[in-house]
Specification:
Blueprint: E1 3-7, H1 21-29, E2 41-43, H2 55-67, E3 75-81, H3 84-97, E4 106-113, H4 122-126, H5 129-138, H6 144-150, H7 155-166, E5 176-182, H8 208-211, E6 215-227, E7 230-239, E8 244-248, H9 266-276, H10 281-300, E9 303-308, E10 311-317, E11 321-330, E12 340-345, E13 359-364, E14 371-377, H11 378-382, E15 387-389, E16 392-398, E17 407-412, E18 420-421, E19 425-427, E20 441-449, E21 452-453
Parallel strand pairs: 1-2, 1-3, 3-4, 4-5, 5-8, 6-20, 7-19, 11-20
Antiparallel strand pairs: 6-7, 9-10, 11-14, 12-17, 13-14, 15-16, 17-19, 18-21
Helix pairs in contact: 2-3
């Protein structure tokens, strides 16, 4: 077996964060038919809590540290946690794009535990007052530049993920990538000042959909014709390469008791060893299928009853969620500042027909204000069967929900008039936008509006007498 490198997450300051996981993997490797000694295991110590450190700095420093290992077979396997996943994925992209400056050492297996691949809703809060106070008491900085990358909808994270969606399948390079994530928060770590730490559909830090590398890129762009003064937008959809993805029941992002890494629970270790045993494309496909089957079984048993002391338990219905990251621009690449974006349902399309409770959270990126992340309840959008109370099957926790398809979208720009402006736009009635979503997955949606340019922007005249054009008449639209 190749050398195994462990890479921790954001703001870690001690290798105790790895818990017993390296030892457990090493001890149980032999029973799984893998040869792994302690000499083959390396633990990363990288600095993410210095405000000056960027993701590119980490990539460059990791590449330098990797060269120092002097690997005999010039290959290694890697197990990451949280931000460690994006760090290694950024290194893989740099290794591909800049081979003259980066190591040629080959990564065979990349096993990501709770990776913040599409970011975390907590990153925006981590840069705020509470995050800074926590860092100050801990004697470290919050790691501003890394948090910028981790914020939902950041330009840097979208660049990496769109590159992954549109690039060659890693399998074609003999590389196997895996995502393992806990299916619920650690309720004992709930922060009453920050509801994201107890958010269903996440592990308490990273949303399940934001970890999953099975993702889509959707584009709503202008059709050739418009009707009734409204621009029609047609949907184009691209799916990324298939990635092995598994939810670990009962595991959370962190913590010694149920944290997916530090707790080193048997289920986590067993899943890691299954990943390390993959040796071919057929092995990988079979494991993807097995994980999908296990995830479906987990989704079928989706009611959690959280003990609440002397009171009735709190009920959590673990519906699959979808993360929709929307970017609003026009065809010149200009952001549509101030534009309204609405999802719609039914025929005729209306925002009033959307199912109640489908939108769980909305967060705009702090640097790219026209990039908005919507956290959606996939089951409510798809329609769902009655949810029975596990304590009494005759009791209903939630009645059956019917689908409100087809789903669409409309855009309301604020500049409907002027020399340069935009018009109202909506998705084509022929496109059901539900098809761009998937359970536990992320979709990046680019909404691109036509840029209306009037003749008055540039005119030629034969009148040689001085003429004031400080208040130009717009005139007809330029085709």
């Amino acid at each position: 077996m190749a050398t195994l490198v462990f890479v921790h997450g954001w703001s870690v300051t001690n290798t105790s964060a790895y818990g017993q996981l390296p030892q457990q993997v090493q001890q149980q490797a032999a029973s799984a038919g893998l040869s792994l000694t302690l000499a083959d295991v390396w633990l990363s110590e990288y600095v993410s809590f210095d405000d000056a450190v960027t993701m590119a700095d980490l990539v460059r420093a990791f590449d330098h540290a990797l060269r120092d290992l002097h690997l005999l077979d010039a290959s290694f396997d890697c197990i990451t946690h949280s931000t460690g996943g994006p760090v290694i994925r950024e290194w893989l992209r740099a290794q591909r794009d800049r081979p003259a400056t980066h190591s040629t050492i080959r990564l065979s297996h990349l096993i990501m535990l709770a990776p913040a691949n599409f970011g975390s809703a907590l990153a925006q809060l981590g840069k705020g007052l509470l995050g800074r106070l926590k860092s100050w008491f801990g004697g470290v900085e919050p790691g501003q530049r890394i948090l910028d990358w981790l914020e939902l909808g950041s330009a840097a994270s979208l660049s990496l993920n769109l590159d992954y969606i549109h690039s060659d399948d890693p399998l074609n390079r003999g590389q196997f990538q895996f995502v393992l994530i806990g299916d619920r928060p650690d309720r004992s770590l709930y922060d009453h000042l920050n509801s994201y730490t107890g958010e269903d559909g996440s592990d308490g830090v990273v949303r399940i959909a934001a970890a999953n590398l099975n993702a889509h890129h959707a584009v709503l762009s202008p059709r050739t014709n418009s009707t009734g003064g409204i621009d029609r937008l047609a949907l184009n959809l691209t799916a990324g390469p298939r990635c092995a993805f598994k939810m670990i029941a009962g595991a959370a992002h962190s913590g010694d008791l149920v944290g997916i890494m530090a707790a080193a629970a048997p289920a986590t270790v067993a899943a890691i060893l299954r990943c390390l045993q993959v040796r071919s494309a057929s092995d990988y496909s079979a494991l993807c299928d097995a994980f999908d089957h296990e995830n479906a079984s987990r989704d079928a048993d989706k009611v959690e009853l959280e003990p609440a002391g002397p009171f009735a338990p709190r009920v959590h219905i673990h519906d699959p969620r979808s993360l929709l990251i929307v970017r609003l621009t026009d065809e010149a690449g200009e952001p549509l500042t101030g534009a309204g974006f609405l999802l719609t349902a039914g025929k005729p399309a209306s925002a009033d027909l959307l199912p109640e409770g489908f939108l769980l959270d909305r967060q705009a990126n702090s640097k790219q204000h026209t990039t908005i992340s919507l956290f959606l309840d996939y089951s409510l959008l798809a329609g769902d069967d009655r949810v029975a109370d596990p304590r009494n099957s005759r009791k209903t926790l939630r009645p059956a929900v019917i689908s409100h398809r087809p789903y669409g979208a409309s855009v309301q720009p604020i500049d409907l008039l002027g020399l340069v402006h935009h018009a109202l736009a909506e998705s084509s009635p022929d496109d059901d936008l539900f098809g761009m979503l998937a359970p536990h997955q992320t979709t990046v949606l680019d909404v691109v509006l036509p840029r209306k340019l009037c003749e008055g922007v540039f005119r030629l005249t034969r009148n040689l007498t001085p003429e004031d054009f400080s208040k130009p008449v717009p005139g007809p639209l330029i085709d």
